[in-house]
Amino acid sequence: MSDFDLNLIRAAVTVLSFATFLGIVAWALSRRNQAAFDLAAQQPFVGDRDATGSSGERSTNQAKESGDE
Q1: Which helix (H) or strand (E) holds 23?
Q2: Is the dihedral of CA 29, 31, 34, 36 positive or negative?
Q3: For residue 59, what are the contacts with CB-CB under 8 A and spacing of at least 6?
Q4: What pLDDT does residue 39 have?
Q5: What is the number of other CB atoms lying within 10 angstroms of the CB of residue 69?
Q6: How many Å is the maximal CA-CA distance in the chain?
Q7: CA 65 to CA 69: how far, in whole Å?
Q8: pLDDT band at 4 (very low <50, low <70, confident <90, very high)
Q9: Per-residue buried b or exposed e for 44-66, using 16+ beta carbons within 10 Å of the residue's own CB
Q10: Mean pLDDT value across residues 37-65
Q11: What share of the chain is helix, strand, coil (3-state, %, to 5)?
Q12: 34-51: average pLDDT
């Protein structure tokens, strides 16, 4: 492989990586995803009561998934 071929491959990978980066940034800043990201941002602050159900017990969906009924 000559230097020209190697440099061409390097340039192509750089351009492809930059285009991928710009795509990810555009997706992250999209208004369509804002509600989902806002909800995900609040997850660390949600109490155990909300995560496990109002009575503090596992929800029925969690019990069914684990095989406990």
Answers
A1: helix 3-28
A2: negative
A3: 52, 53
A4: 92
A5: 6
A6: 69
A7: 9
A8: confident
A9: eeeeeeeeeeeeeeeeeeeeeee
A10: 68
A11: 75, 0, 25
A12: 82
**What does the pLDDT look like over 6-30, one tens digit per residue?**
899 999 999 999 999 999 999 999 9
Reported residue count of the chain is 69
Placement of tokens 């602050």 in the chain: 45
- pLDDT at position 58: 53
Contacts of 38 (CB under 8 A, 6+ apart): none
What are the Cα distances from residue 1, in Å, to 15, 51, 53? 21, 58, 63
What is the helix (H) or strand (E) element at residue 24, kind and residue range? helix 3-28
Cβ pair 27, 33 in contact under 8 A: yes
